[in-house]
Amino acid sequence: MGTPCHFALFDLQPGFRLDLDKLAVRYRELAREVHPDRFADTSEREQRIALENSAALNDAYQTLRSAPRRARYLLAISGHEVPQEVTVHDPDFLLQQMELREELEELADLDAVGVFKKRLKAAQDTLNDDFAACWNDPAQREQAERLMRRMQFLDKLAQEVRQLEERLDD
Hints:
Shape: globular
Structural class: mainly alpha
CATH architecture of the largest domain: Up-down Bundle
Radius of gyration: 19 Å
Protein name: Co-chaperone protein HscB homolog
Helix content: over 70%
Subunit structure: Interacts with HscA and stimulates its ATPase activity.
CATH topology of the largest domain: Monooxygenase
Distance between the termini: 44 Å
Order of helices and strands: HHHHHHH
Domain J: 5-77
GO molecular function: ATPase activator activity; protein-folding chaperone binding
CATH class of the largest domain: Mainly Alpha
Family: Belongs to the HscB family.
Number of strands: 0
CATH superfamily of the largest domain: HscB, C-terminal domain
Largest sheet: none
């Protein structure tokens, strides 16, 4: 398998918009093909390769199913390596993040969390649309990178929302 482009692995054209259900179906098909258990009776080398292929497939799937990771990957494969640190030089966005975090800390019941989640999802959808519109335009590369960083922030916030939901659900 080596390390082909994540999109090629799933027979997809590189792009931000993906059918995540089709991606999941294709992932399960490929995972069955490369699962290390299928190579239990083969040589040690073949078992190691199967393990590596399975890990590479898993990594590709995790990257493509996550909007911020997919955005970072698209920028990287289009020749725009993005540093790992998640610094956002955008005072308005940072202020909005602080306000959202404060609001999240004050949520006390699942209904309020549900309303917050809907707003967060709408913000994520808007960012996704904006990124999809500009990632492949070299003239808008800085904007695409800025949007990708914002996506990472909102993704982290969404994880915190899920954790809060679990705590409130107990």
